[in-house]
Design goal:
This protein is α/β, with parallel strands linked by helices and 307 residues long. Helix content is 48%, strand content 14%. The mean pLDDT is 92.
Length: 307
């Protein structure tokens, strides 16, 4: 079957890739499930603008009408933002049915990696990855993001794993799957809203050029899977670790009481934490995504120099 039926890449992204210019993939779950309209659309467009300002072409990825679309337009971002939670949160398992039915989907980290890889985009900037959920030894609730990192050749730039997760087990899972975890300017895993977690990453690299060199070597040696680059939220926007631990515990307790699990758990917890922190966690979320977009663009630029 012809893949072109299910994959669309914008002319701008195609031209950039063909001429060895830097491209940075961006996800769409943050648009439909991350925050309310119109803030979701404003943030998505600001992230794209930031990528451009730092020298790369943004490629926001979503499923539009049954097609994996790489480099969607501002109008399509507006469409996803207005449709909001009515858009399916699409991970790898959802792709066959959504594409077959001709439906829309907001891509998670895993699905954005798939779309980026199909289009030939090597760098993807997001907020935080999914991981091993608290209590996973009983529920087996482990994000598909981790499995995707082990098999799809896309470097993911993030602010660490979301702090609602079991960060220790998340790192153990990544180690088992052979995923290299890099700290940008740090040896400690950042915890999304917070700069510190108490857990160590595999390597500290201090420049985008060093990270690009590692990506290039990995590609040259034919090593499958992605690299995970963890980038701490800027200090002026970081939240207090003790306060966040307290609010996360409260949100997790609420979720347990209501029996919320599976793909609904992350958006529920993030929304409750936003309420408990009086909106400060959402403001921090936006700042860290912009920070990751800057680093993603810098890495993509350096990577093009090695081609």
């Amino acid at each position: 079957m012809n893949l072109n039926k299910f994959l669309w890449v914008s002319d701008e992204v195609k031209d950039a890739l063909a001429s060895n210019r830097p491209v940075v993939a961006l996800e769409s779950t943050i648009i439909s499930h991350g925050m309310p309209y119109p803030q979701n659309v404003e943030t998505a467009l600001l992230v794209e603008k930031t990528v451009r300002e730092y020298g790369a072409v943004p490629a926001t990825i979503a499923i539009i009408g049954g097609t994996i679309s790489v480099g969607i337009s501002a109008e399509q971002i507006e469409y996803l933002g207005k449709k909001g939670l009515a858009v399916t949160k699409a991970s790898r398992r959802d792709l066959p049915v959504l594409l077959a039915r001709g439906e829309d989907g907001a891509t998670t980290v895993a699905t954005t990696m798939i779309g980026a890889s199909l289009a030939g985009v090597q760098v993807f900037a997001t907020g935080g990855i999914g991981g091993v959920h608290r209590g996973a030894e009983i529920t087996m609730d482990i994000s598909a993001d981790l499995e995707e990192l082990s098999q799809t050749d896309v470097t993911v730039v993030c602010a660490g794993a979301k702090s609602i997760l079991d960060l220790g087990l998340t790192l153990e899972y990544l180690e088992t799957k052979g995923v290299t975890v890099i700290g940008y300017g740090t040896k400690e895993l950042p915890a999304f809203y917070c700069r510190k977690s108490g857990y160590q990453v595999d390597y500290r690299l201090d420049t985008a050029a060093e990270i690009a060199a590692a990506i290039h070597v990995k590609e040259t040696c034919g090593l499958k899977g992605g690299l995970l680059v963890t980038n701490p939220i800027p200090e002026e926007y970081a939240m207090n670790e003790e306060e966040m631990a307290e609010q996360i515990d409260k949100a997790v307790a609420m979720a347990n009481e209501l029996g919320i699990k599976g793909k609904e758990i992350t958006p529920f917890l993030l929304d409750k934490i936003k309420t408990l922190t009086e909106g400060r966690s959402l403001a921090a979320n936006i700042k860290l995504v912009l920070n990751n977009a800057k680093l993603g663009a810098a890495i993509a630029c350096e990577l093009c120099k090695l081609k």
